[in-house]
Every structure is written in C-alpha cells, then in structure tokens.
Design goal:
- 4 copies of one chain form a homotetramer.
- In chain A, 60% of the residues lie in helices and 3% in strands.
- Chain A is mainly alpha-helical and 250 residues long.
- Chain A is globular.
- Chain A binds chain C through residues 1-3, 6-9, 14, 77, 79-80, 82-83, 86-87, 90, 242, 245-250, and chain C through 1-3, 6-9, 14, 77, 79-80, 82-83, 86-87, 90, 242, 245-250.
C-alpha cells in the first residue's frame, strides 16, 4: 500500500521524481505545482497558461452560497479555519461548479471526438436527442444571466485555441451547442463550466476529478472571504436578520 | 451586507478592482491570483516568489492522515468529490500544518519585533520562559525526524532572505530557537511550519488565516491523491485489512 | 424568511408547537424527539417502535471507512471533535448507507404501490427490466456476505409488520426481489438498506432525506469511536503502518 | 488494530456484547442505543432519563448559523445530503454548543469535587480568580438573553436531581456561579451548555467527547431542516437577497 506520488525519508521529499528542496521550492510556481501533482510531470508553457486560466476563472464570484456557508461556520468555530473551508467546499456539488464534471463526462464518454466533422455532428445529434428525450439539461450550456454569451467562455476558449487546445472535445461541445439551438429552438451559449470541462478534457484531465479544478479555486476564494469575515463580519448580521424574523411573536 | 472582494453584474466580474475577463484571465497566474484574493492587490515579483514557495512547500507529503481520510471518504461517496476533499481538509488542524498558525500567532502577538537586537532577545527570553512555565511546546520548533535541521526550512528562509523578507518576525523566531536551545538544553531547529508562519508574517498575513496556506496547498494534493485513488485504489484494501482483523472469531 | 419548525423568544422555545421546557424535556425521549422534528408531531407507539429500530440498526458496524476517516481526522484536529464527525459523515454517500436512498426513491417514484397484487407485479417487472437494460444494480437487493439472507432484514421487516407497517412499499420491494431472482437467475435477498428504505417509505419519509436515518445513526457511532480513539488510539498506528511502507528506500 | 465496540461476521453483529438482531432491534430504543455505544453498557432507567434529556435539549433552536450553512450547502449539492449535514456540524465549535466542552473540562479537571462543601468553595474561588486574572469568560455561565435564568437550565438540573445526578460536578458549577456573582458583581446564571456539561460529567462522560452530545442532537435537527428546505426553500432567497446587494452597480 503506497502512493506513487511521493517518496519521503528523513533527508528528502520527492514528488513525482522531483526533489522538493532542490528541484521545486523557488523554481516551480503554484500553478505548475498543481499540474505536477495531478499530471505527474511539469507542464509545458502552453499547458501552463491554459491550466492556470481554468483555475483562476473560478477563484472568486462574490457571496456565493458556498462562501456564506463558510462564513456562517466560522461564526461558530473561529478556531477551526479548516472546518469553515470544508463547509464551504461541501456545497461545490452538482449545481454550482459541478457542471464542469457533467460537461467533461459528456465529452469524454462520447468517444474519440477527433474523427472528423461528420462524426462530431452525429455525436452531437445523439447527445442532444438523448438529453431531450430524458428531459435533462445539457451540462455546460445556457446561463440564467448571460443569455447571449458568457464573456468568460469566449476568453477561455480563445486562450485554449491560442495555445493549441482547440481539439476534439472543444469542437464537440461547440457542435452540441449548435445542435441544441437547432433542435430546441433557442440560443444556449456555452457557459463557463462547459468551457472549463471541455478544455480540461483537452488537457487530458479525467472527468471524475474535474470538479477538483473548482475545489482548488474555491479554497483560495474561501480563505480570502474568511479573512474579510474576520475584519468586516457579516455572517452574524445575516444570521440575526434571519433569526430576528423567526423570533417574532408566536 | 456586501463583500468588498468582488463586484459582478451581467456583463462583468471585478475582483479587487480588476476585470476577470480583460485583466486577469491569461495574464494572472494561480499564485498571483491567490495573492490578489487575499491581499487585495497583485504581488510584486519578490512577494510572488516567496508566496508561491510557501504554498508549494505544503502541497504534498505522501499518505498523510488527511489524504487517507479523503481516500476512505471517496470509497463511500465517489460521486461527491467535494465531500472527500472536505473530509481531508477537516483534519488540517492544530497538529499537522496548523502549527503554522501557532508560530504566526506567537510572532505577531509578540509586538513589533523590528525594534532591534536587544528587544528581540528580551522577547525571546520571555516567550521561552512562558512556554517552559506552562509546559507547552513552542510552535514552529523541533521535528521528530529532522532533529538537526529541516531541509525545507533552510531553503524557505533562503528564498525569503533573497527577496527581502528576512525581517523582524523571522529574526524573532531565530532568536526564540536559540534561546530555547540555551534554556532547554537541546537543539530545536525551526521546522517547516515555523518557517512558513514566520515568512507569512513578513508578508503581512493575519495569523488567523495563516492555516489557509496549508488548506490551499492540501486541496491541490488531495485532488491528486483522489485521482490516484481512482486509478490505483488503496482505500478499500486499507479498510479491509483493518476490518479483517476486527472480524476474527469472537 | 422563517422556519416553521421552531419559534423561540427570551422566555420559551417551541418546537412544532410543543414547549421545550414544559412539554418535552424529561417527557419526550430521543427517538420521539427525532420523529417530532422530522414529522412535525409525536409518533404513536407503533411508529415509535418502528422508527427507533430503523435508526438503531445503523448506529454501529465496526471500523467502517467512515469511522476510519473520522479517527484519522481527529489525529490532526483533536480540538475540533465536530470536524472529525463531519469528515466521517462525508462518506455516508451512495455506496454505504446511501443505498437506503436508492431503495426509497425507487419505491416512492413507482407510484401508488397499494393498488393490488397485479399492479405490484407489473411494477416489479418494469423496474427489473429497466435496471437490467441499463445494467444497473437494483438498490436494496443483494449483499456480498449475506448471500442467502441478511439477518437484520428479516428482523426489521418483522418489527414493521407487527406494528402495521407491511404496506405497499414493503410488498413492492419483495415483489422486485422475487422478480429479480426470476429474471436474473440468482437469489438477491433484500439487504438492510433496502428494508430500511422500504419501511421508511411506509412511515412516509421523503426519499430525499432518507439518507438522514443513516446520518443520525452514524453520528452516534462516530462519537463512540472517537471516545475509543482517545482511550485506545489506533489511527496513528494505521497511518504509520501505511506511511512506513511509503517510506521504503527510493 | 481492532475496535472493542463491535465484532461482526457473516452471521452476526455484536455491539458491546449484545447481538444486534436478537438483543437490540425492537428492544433497545435510540437513546439507550446511544448510551450503549458510548458507555459500553445499557443505561439504568435513571441514567436513561437524564441522558435523553441532555440530547433532546439541543436538537432544535431555529435558524442557527449551523442550520443556515447546511441549507446553503444543500442548494449546491442536493444529491449529497451528507455533505449538507457535515457542513452544518462543522460550525458546532467553541462558540455555539461547544461551551458544553468548556464547562465539562473545567469541572472534570478541577479534581474530585465531592470532597465536601469547603473544598468546593475553595475550588470555586480558585477557578473564578483564574478566569478573572486571564480575562476569560467562565464557560457555562451567562446568557445574552436569559439574564436572570435560563429556563432550560432549571429543568435539566431538576431532572438530574430527581434521578440522583446532583453530585459534585453540578454542585461545583453552582458554587462557581455564586462565587462569580460575588467576585464580578453581576448575576451570571448557569446556561444550558453549563448545565449539560455538568450533568454529562455526573454521568461520567469524558469532556473530550462532550461536544458529541450537541453533534448527535444537531444532526437530527439538520435533517429536519433539510426536509423543510426541500419543501419550503429559503436558502436561495437568503443568498439572492445578499447577492443582490452585492450586485448593485459598481
């Protein structure tokens, strides 16, 4: 029973073959380190740019339910910062952020998407027909606010394309979006989760851990929000405002 | 009730004043983004190097209790990756990683440590005497394996010094270590958590979120271990090995 | 924004209309209190007996992955008992315990199962055919060890029947088990999760919180295991045994 | 590596020596089962009454921060009920509920409190003087709303006394409350957490798991609130109300 990721003894810690002290510290930055951990090798510059952008896109989005849960948890357990962060991450499920996983799974399970345009069209038709028949939402498409286009999507897809990662998965998602518009009769732009799921698939990330991109990103965001909570508390007010209403006379 | 970190509307997401799409994506890497989130501004190159090293140092350390907890959690809830990561982070408390917080708190509460060598010596004597009287372990010193010196410590302190971050907090911790050796009669090297706590203090990170450095780092590590768990499961074997022993005849 | 469960002010706490101090404390026991919380009224004696049995059945099952995760978490965060329990619960997902939810959902979504034997047979045939076609495991049936019969199942179903809760959902699950044996050609006894899912459905518990029975039960078990961990630690040994193997020479 | 709590094989599950199927199911109720798990034996009727009251007292207290965190988590991860409950429990720390632990620790570490009135007075004086000198709040005393008396306290202490559990720990807490009033010059009634910590100590519960009483209780409450959240959602409104304010024009 051993992990292949790390070997350590009293003198050294080797991570995927690199020595932490002599090869990594001061030489490998955080994004490269995350890539090394997950892929088992350092990224090339193009992978590095694309992978960083995917995580950075999800670090911060204001007072999300996840952030509120973390702040409320901190109120009761201020000496367990990790418990507040864990509570915040617990809600990074299927509804928010988790649609990355849905999109990545859809694309990766569709089979080799690089077999040409015709094959992609056929796959897209199959996918849309299946979701339509099951009355399910197609993951990665549509947004309640950005009805025409999600500005993050265009930017991420451009960064991917500039670096050679507009491959079969991205093109299949584009084909699915076009087919969905044709078949369902309304514009469903690729949303940021869809873009991330597709580009992560181009990078070869297994869909089963694709939600991890959101988890890494949101942990950073949660720490920042907990620092703000310490300096400018709002969870207590949020709670008392709610409680107050619950405490009106019976 | 609002957060100052992020403002978003249908057209844009602004994080500490920067536009996510036009100013950040493709331009700001993950380490810089984490710094921006927490400090409210982008790092200068020296801060960037030092901050990246602090987090990178804690990303991976093999089959830690936290990693084992995450892998065992995944066994029961494979469709909730976030629950496995949250379980792993829940153990990033006072014993492992959390000693960052102890060291950072000690140094930050000691008052201005840059008032000169004499003042630092006096503070160090007070601190060691107090912990000795209370029979408590001084956070940031000593290591069960690296009895002479923790190789990560020297490297991190060197990176900090090269970039202008060998200031009052680092020197106070060094003074405490020297005084502890004198007063307690045995060598207690600064360990990696102590070094990180001191350098994070130099960067101005509030000790109350200093554990966050470990949380960001370990989330990356946990995602990598869960990917390995999917490909080469070991949690079931760990469990069955234990269970088997528990199932010996009554 | 208010909850209908509880109204409280400076003088009283009323839970579903009962006063905590005068109506509940010393008069309502834990099982009744749980029923009151969830159903909004106290149970009658038959409901009380059945509901208690469902939870009691899941309190303890030795060194489960969930228990190991909690003990390993405690090792790193001994001053945050809640974090260890939260970590343990995080793994109560689809694989262990969560199959309650699968069975309850299957039965509750099948529509009114009390329309008579013929209707039930037809439903059972549909269900088995559907799972067979989708190559999915039928929730609530089969057990890796109890291949002939799970002794807990028979006892729980007997307690339910004695108290008037052998209704449409239980009979539908029995019909599904019989049809599965006929259609798949092998004996698949109702397992304990299936029995609990069916009986909870008889009690009218919404399948979407049926996993809650396991969560209440396991929280009790986790607290007991953490007490044992304090008195007779085993997590450190479990970890070191694993670590040791990971620390063999490179 | 084995747990003494449970032995199981293909034919039976024995919990602290009792067979789950033949000795427990249908015979042991939930409160008794919790006592059996934690104490290793069934309670006598007096212990049963007192222990049930302690947990029941903490099951429900409206829209607490913990409940809000669980509901907000559910919003993002509706298919992981366990993650929402785990998030809710993560905040059961030192501030809410956790003061049980503070009171139980204080009383249990004070040494044998049954050595007579004089000894108790001396202990109480020492304790109050120590907390006063350290400017710390004495756990278990005072309440922001119930300034004269917490009605739950009187009821719980009466139940304990009626059943023979007004022993040294309860009397020491009463002595501490009286001494605090004398020394600090203001009335500080024993609050519900103090009463529970003292009575749990009478029952012999190790202070290090005394927070577990709150965890068991709150898990029940969280499941009930999540059921209400499914039927009458309020988390989304809570979030959007906050978000809306955050989304005002820049």
């Amino acid at each position: 029973m051993r992990s292949e990721i790390c070997r350590s003894d009293a003198d050294s810690i080797r991570i995927h073959g690199l020595d932490l002290v002599t090869d990594i510290l001061g030489k490998v930055d955080l994004g490269q380190m995350a890539f090394l951990e997950i892929w088992g090798r350092l990224p090339n510059p193009r992978e590095d740019t694309v992978f960083n952008a995917l995580i950075v896109a999800l670090v911060e989005h204001g007072l999300t339910p996840s952030v509120l849960a973390a702040r409320l948890t901190y109120l009761g357990a201020p000496d367990s910062l990790q418990a507040a962060v864990a509570a915040g991450l617990s809600g990074v499920g299927t509804v928010f952020v988790g649609s990355i996983e849905g999109a990545a799974r859809l694309l990766q399970e569709a089979g080799p998407a690089d077999a040409g345009e015709d094959r992609r069209q056929a796959l897209a038709r199959d996918i849309v027909a299946r979701f339509k028949a099951e009355k399910r939402i197609i993951p990665g498409l549509g947004h309640p606010i950005h009805k025409q286009a999600d500005p993050r999507t265009a930017r991420l897809l451009a960064i991917a394309a500039e670096n050679g990662f507009r491959g079969g998965h991205v093109m299949l998602l584009e084909a699915v979006a076009a087919e969905a518009e044709r078949s369902l009769g309304r514009h469903l732009p690729i949303n940021v989760s869809g873009a991330i799921g597709a580009i992560a698939s181009e990078l070869g990330l297994d869909w089963r851990v694709s939600r991890g991109i959101g988890l890494i990103a949101r942990t950073i965001g949660l720490v920042a929000h907990l620092l703000e909570e310490i300096r400018s508390p709002l969870a207590r007010e949020l709670w008392l405002r709610t409680e107050h209403e619950a405490q009106e006379p019976l």
